[in-house]
Amino acid sequence: MAILRLTVNDRAIECEVSPRRSLADFLREDLRLTGTHVGCEHGVCGACTVLVDGQTARSCLLLAVQLEDARVTTIEGLTPPDGLSPVQRAFHECHALQCGFCTPGMIVVAHELLAGNPAPTREEIRAAIGANLCMCTGYVNIVRAIEAAAAQTRA
Amino acid sequence: MTPWVGRAVPRKEDARLTTGRGAYLDDLSRPGLLHAAMLRSPHAHARVVAIDTSAAERLPGVLAVLTGTEAAAVSQPIRPLIPTAVPLRDWCLAADRVRFAGEPVAAVAAVDRATAEDALENIRVVYEPLPAVLDPEEAIRSSAPLLYPELGTNVLWHDVLTYGDVDAAFARADGVLRERFEIQRYASTPLETFGAIAEHDPGLDQFTFWTNDQRPGLTLAILADSLGVPQSRLRLICPDIGGAFGNKRRPAYLLVCALLARKARRPVKYVEDRRENLTALMHACNGVMDVELAYTKDGTVLGLSVRDIADEGKNLVSPAQHNLIKLGNIANGYRIGAIRYEPYAVLTNKCPSGANRGIGKPFMCFAVERAMALLARRLGIDPAELRLRNYVGPEQMPYTTPTGSQYDSGDYPATLRRVLERFDYAGRRAEQARARTEGRLLGIGIATSVEPAGTNLASYELVTGRRAASGSAEAAMVRVEPDGEVRASLGDPASGQGYETVVAQIVADELGTTPERVHVERGFDSGATPWLYLSGNYSNKFSVTDVGAVIGAARKVRDKLLRIAAHRLEAAVDDLELVDGEARIRGVPGRGLALRELARTAYADVLGLPPGEEPGLEARHIHQNPLAEPIGAGRRVRSQLVFSNAAHCCLVEVDRGSGHVRILAHVVVHDCGRELNPLIVEGMVHGSTVHGMGAALLEEFRYDDGGQLMTATFMDYLKPTALDVPDIEVDRLESPSPFTPLGSKGVGEGGAIPGPAAVANAVEDALAPFGVTVRALPITPERVWRWLSRV
Question: Count of A–B CB contacts within 8 Å?
Answer without folding.
Answer: 161
